[in-house]
Design brief:
Layout: H1 14-38, H2 46-49, H3 62-97, H4 103-115, H5 117-124, H6 129-142, H7 153-165, H8 167-176, H9 184-191, H10 202-214, E1 221-230, E2 236-237, E3 244-245, H11 251-265, E4 278-286, E5 292-300, H12 305-322, E6 325-332, H13 335-342, E7 357-359, E8 368-374
Parallel strand pairs: 1-6, 6-8
Antiparallel strand pairs: 1-4, 2-3, 4-5, 7-8
Helix pairs in contact: 5-6, 7-8, 12-13
Length: 378
């Protein structure tokens, strides 16, 4: 009796022949019943060919794929026509019922704001956000030029939050003319205060040192938060330096190990650095203060616990030398993070032992660093 092997086409075992015979007979019987009932041989399943089907394409045959693509194209065409119709209706409503505000009406509205300013500030308070926002809108409406506008820090912070939620929605609100908001160019000066780059930076150390110097001694106690997020693959060219960003970069040690591993698997002359799909960010969070500083970030393609081990301890070393006292490390429950904690197992520890802390080797005192994983993540 022949063994089952995908390379042997003509000679099969009796189990394979029996299974193949039953499958062919079942398919033939189903097709015959459909042909007798409808008079035609239908190879397309209505459930798999519909536009709202959730069946994966690899389980569909070619006629079913073509039928679903045709159905999806029809649905997209109908939605596009409906969108164009609604746009035309909105434009017609604006032309018929819209009111254009000329200069006298604008002056009347500004005078109304001035007349009710005292009531608004008395109700909400001058130091409240509503009072500050009202005052900023009135100053912006009475300003002779946009170059003379000066925005309050609370308004800038609120606008940065709106732009973070949706940049297109922020531009829509700003261009509507209902309220005056800072431009995206103005907000960019507040978002790009420091040049960001992959890895560690002296600017982050200097900023953290200034924060610790301005606050009390309790500000140095904190934990390290790290998380991995997906980003869009691609390359970015910086005109000022001529550098290309978008490749994986996990530090000098990990980069050399990855290049050496790749050279063993393929021709060294054809090696190419892969594009980054994820970014891992390490943040210092104060326990007794509101300090939250993204300390370093690295671009990666697929992270493992062994890749994060040297990065985590390099972050601990630099933060400790800056003056911070690291008491814990927090992350989600991903498999690379679990593997990272398991790498701190000491020689002689049993495999069933739960690793929840390790010794900080960069301090003179014997202080432990505790590990905590969020159970809500997969």
């Amino acid at each position: 009796m022949w063994l089952c092997d995908s390379r042997q086409i003509t000679n099969k075992c009796q189990h394979c022949n029996l299974y193949q015979r039953h499958s062919l007979n079942s398919a033939l019987s189903t097709a015959t019943k459909k042909f007798e009932a409808t008079g035609k041989l239908d190879l397309v399943s209505p459930g798999r060919s519909s536009s709202n089907s959730h069946t994966n394409y690899r389980f569909c045959n070619t006629p079913e794929k073509l039928a679903r693509l045709t159905s999806l194209h029809h649905v997209v065409s109908l939605q596009k026509k409906e969108l164009d119709r609604l746009k035309d209706r909105i434009n017609q409503q604006i032309e018929c019922g819209g009111v254009s505000i000329d200069e006298p009406v604008h002056d009347d509205l500004v005078n109304m704001m001035k007349d009710h300013t005292d009531k608004v500030l008395q109700k909400h308070g001058e130091d409240s956000f509503l009072g500050i926002f009202w005052s900023q809108q009135m100053k912006s409406a009475t300003a002779s030029s946009s170059k003379g506008r000066r925005w309050h820090p609370l308004v800038i912070k609120w606008c940065l939050y709106l732009q973070h939620l949706s940049s297109k929605a922020y531009e829509t609100i700003r261009n509507s003319g209902v309220i005056n908001l800072p431009s995206s160019r103005t907000l960019r000066d507040y978002k790009h205060l420091e040049d960001t780059k992959i890895g560690f930076s002296i600017e982050a150390d200097r900023q953290l040192f200034d924060i610790l110097k301005q606050k009390d001694d309790l500000a140095k106690y904190g934990v390290i938060l790290f998380d991995e997020m997906y980003v869009k693959q691609g390359l970015v060219f910086e005109k000022s330096t001529g550098a290309l960003f978008g490749f994986t970069d996990l530090g000098e040690v990990n980069n050399q190990l990855d290049e050496f591993e790749a050279s063993l698997k393929s021709d060294a002359s054809l090696l190419q650095r892969p594009l980054a799909k994820t970014v891992i960010v390490f943040m210092f969070k104060g326990l007794f203060t509101n300090t939250a500083l993204p300390y370093a970030h690295f671009a990666a393609s697929s992270l493992t616990g062994a890749d994060m081990f040297p990065l985590l301890w390099k972050v601990i070393e630099r933060l400790t030398r800056t003056g911070c006292c690291i008491l814990g490390v927090t992350c989600d429950g991903g498999s690379p993070n679990r593997r990272l904690f398991q790498l701190h197992r000491l020689p002689g520890d049993p495999k069933e032992k739960i690793i929840y802390k390790t010794l900080n080797v960069f301090t003179d005192e014997a202080k432990d660093i505790f590990f905590y994983r969020l159970a809500s993540s997969a």
